[in-house]
Amino acid sequence: MTHGLVHPPKARPGDRIAVISPSFAAAGAFPEVHEQAMRRLTDVTGLIPVEYPTTREVGATPAARAAEINAAFADPRIRGILAVVGGEDQITVIPHLIADLARTDPKPFLGTSDNTNLHHWLWENGIASFYGGSSQVHLGPGPAVDDIHARSLRAALLTGERLELTDPGESEDFGIDWADPRALESFGEREATAPWSWHGPARSVSGSAWGGCLEVIEWILTAGRFPFPPEVLQGGVLIIETSEELLPARNVGWIVRSLGERGILRAVDAVLVARPPVSDFTRRPSAQDRARLRDEQRDAVVEVVTRYNPEAVVCVGIPFGHTRPQWILPHGGTMTVDGAERRIFADYR
C-alpha cells in the first residue's frame, strides 16, 4: 500500500483499556455476560478495563457515543480500545469523531462487524487497527476464551508478534442467547469445519490488510467515506466477511462485484474470505443445506474475484468476523498469503 499508517504502541499488563459501545450497548442489555467478559479480559491480557457512561447505555445518541470514543483517545492513561459488540448505526457516529485526538495519541482499536466504520475512519486518518475482538461474543459467553482468540488478542494488544493462522477444527454461527443463564457456561452448537478453499496462482504475497464486514463496506462506499483512488490498496490483502444477516450468495456476489467495478479487486494481491454464518436463532438449516449455502457464497465470491483479478491469491473459510472461534486480524498491518504452501501469517506489530 502507498497509504502510510502509524502502528500504535502496545500496552503493558497493568495498563488501562477503554471498553466502549460505539454501536449496540450489549453490555447494558446483558450485563452478566459483559461482566464475565471484563474479568476474562484482565485474566487473558493483564489489562484493566475502563467503562464509560454509554458502555451500558442502550439507545445512547451517536453524538454521546462518539464523545466517549474521543475521550478514550484523549486520555493518556488509556492504552487500548475494545468495542463490546457491533450493531447497525455506527455510520452515524463517525461524523462526530475528532481525528486530531486519534492522531495525537494513536491506540490499538479492536472491534468487528459494524465497527468496520471505525476501522476505516482510523485507516483514513493514518492509523492501523485490528479487525475482531468483540468482548460480548468472544470473551463473555461460554466456559472459556477460545485459544486462537486469546492468542491473537494478546498479540494485538501486548506482544506484536507474528502468528500463523490455523483452523481450530470447529465453529459456531451463534451462541446461546445472552439472556439465558446458560450463556455464561456453554458454547453454542459447534460443528466441524471444512478445509480452507484455495484459488488463484500458487504464489506467496505479502501486503497490508484492508476490509471488514462486506455489508458495512458497502455502506461506507455509499456514504463516500473512501476518498482514495483504488491504487492506494495496490499489493494489499483484502479481508472480507459477511454478517448474521445471512445474505444470499448472489447478494454477496453483487457487493464484491461493486468492489471490482471500483478497482479495488484489481489493486490487491490477495483476498481472504471468512467462514460465513449460515444460521441464526430462528433459521437453522440442515447440515447438508448449511454446507451448500457456504459453498454457494464461496463460489460467488471466487467467480467475481477471478473475473476482475485472475492473479489474486484467494483463500475462503478462515475463522474471522462473524464466527467463533475467531482470529483477530490486522487492519493496516501486514499479512502473508502463501498460495503455494497454503499458509497464512499475520503481523500484529
Written account of the structure:
- The radius of gyration is 19 Å and the shape is globular.
- 50% of the residues are buried.
- The protein contains eleven helices and 16 strands.
- It has an eight-stranded mixed beta sheet, sandwiched between helices. A six-stranded mixed beta sheet has the order 2-1-3-4-5-14, with helices on both faces.
- The longest helix is centred in the C-terminal third of the chain and has 22 residues, at 287-308.
- By secondary structure, it is an alpha/beta fold.
- The two termini are 16 Å apart.
- Helix 9 runs parallel beside helix 11 (287-308).
- The mean pLDDT is 97.
- Helices cover 32% and strands 20% of the residues.
What's the gyration radius in Å? 19 Å
Structural class: alpha/beta
| Biggest sheet features | 8 strands, mixed
**Count of β-strands:** 16
Shape: globular
Uncertain regions spanning at least 5 consecutive residues:
none
Q: Give, in spatial order, the strands making up the sheet with the most strands.
A: 6-16-15-10-11-12-13-9
Mean pLDDT over the residues? 97
Summary, kept brief:
Helices cover 32% and strands 20% of the residues. The chain contains eleven helices and 16 strands. Helix 9 runs parallel beside helix 11.
